[in-house]
Amino acid sequence: MAQQIPVDPGARADDPRADAVRDDATHAITDDVAYQRHVLVNVVFVGTPGAGDRGWVLVDAGVMGSKRAIRTAAEARFGADARPAAIVLTHGHFDHVGVLEDLAEAWDVPVYAHALERPYLDGSAAYPTADPSVGGGLLGRLSPLFPTKPVDVSGRLRTLPEDGSVPPMAGWRWIHTPGHAPGHVSLWREADRTLIVGDAFVTTAQESVYAVAVQEPELHGPPMYLTIDWDAARNSVRTLSALEPERVITGHGRPLQGMAMRRALNTLAAEFDRVAVPRQGRFVEKPLHAADGSAYKEPR
Q1: Which one in 96, 156, 198, 221 has a CA-CA gap of 20 to 30 Å to 276?
Q2: Which PANTHER family does the record cross-reference, listed alphabetically (predicted)?
Q3: 294 pLDDT band (50/70/90 cuts)?
């Protein structure tokens, strides 16, 4: 199995003491960025507290059953009946779009994603089945049971602009970080060097139930069982490492910040094949590509 890069616990970007007094079940990272954990995955709220209706953005849409928790947190953080200006997706895997259709309908909002994720968000293509042979723990072994069928928000779906801007998120830009998914993106704010990573890399061993429960601060490559192009994944981590971020919030695990995080990220980028890539697996042997811009296809 792949390895982890430990990070000093002092690199945590969230403050448990401050979070203890909050009533919205979110964890603050900056004044206008917070996250909420849903079993396996994080969703991110971008906007200042009290921003009001259409004054904030939701990044990713959790797992099935998380609709009430997300809406309750949003109202507590931004105000009664405060809807987002948009939902922005890092990618369309099941644990990032679990309640997307319900939330998009209830809030009447556009959904932004990379063009290469469109087939998985308009109902026209399913992701490849996960690969349990990568090892790593119980979640890895159970991964073939994870849903791969697409959601359908075609009527609300918008493609992220080619200029890198994120229309509802002033000051942010999207960066194409494929490998884990064809149209995977990460979100970057240069002003304070904040990075919303998605699953381009993560800060817990997502294949292990124990690691997911404990969430010791450490850096890993993308979740192995659903990563289908390891060359692209390596390039994506190197792109993000070169940004030298001050803080990162990933799709899985705790947010991290500071020099200790950057050293670990630089190590992950430099030693990606040793640390992140599994020794075996069908996508290690036959990666899936989407060079023609269409949905990934299983090899024949």
Answers
A1: 96
A2: METALLO-BETA-LACTAMASE DOMAIN-CONTAINING, METALLO-BETA-LACTAMASE DOMAIN-CONTAINING PROTEIN
A3: very low
